[in-house]
Hints:
The chain is mainly α. The protein contains 12 helices and no strands. It has one domain. It is elongated, with a radius of gyration of 27 Å.
Amino acid sequence: MHSQQKATGMAPLDRDIVAFQAEVEHTLRPLHMREAAPSVAARQRGFAQFACLGPIVLVGIGFLAVLVFLPLASIVIDQGYGLILAIVLPPILLLTARWLGRINAQNQQQEVYRYQQMIDELIALEPDEPHWTETRERLQQQTRLGAAEREQLDREWEAAHARYAAALLERQDVLVVICPVLRTDTRDVFTIARRLSGALHQAVQQGTLPIPLFPMLVATMSMQVIRRGVGNVCGMLNGQRPLAAQSAEQQAPMREPGE
């Protein structure tokens, strides 16, 4: 998502509903996996962390290549070409080291930029929260992030979206948009996400629902709808009591006055 869209919090008007639904589904998968299969999600996070070590792995491969090259170098030296090898080899090693360092720096910078975009989302969701502005300014001065800092930012990002999603599911103007497309006959979170993303994207694009709209926000709303149940969410429409509360009241025993 473009930084301008994230900074303003407006709908992704340059993409159609299908593209936005695909982004929501892509964002939702790890959230759903974490809840449905925690062990699988933990393994996937481990793989992702290992992938971040790509430049280090390349350095190791480079050293292995040097070890393989040494026997060949001894043969070249025995043939009387040691001076040529001494002239050619150091520049090659220096260029390789610089190339690996440049790749590592680019990866680190891209990671920082990704978190800057995430903070832009939080500024759009909670513009009156100074912590997000301070974090954004701090990230602009950084060239890399440690593992602990990434985990902290991830937790804050998810928590802020969860707060905003819960608030949206209490708003009548939001329920008017999403409840007509929800069905109580499905417990599939991805079906819920497709219906929510389609309805919200259209409403925000038409200007009838002026809210920030991001894939993570819709994915979080979908998870909350599944946890609470469509009936309980849409039972708040027009001031109605949630279905769970109505059912509990109906099942409660009648008490005589004075008991």
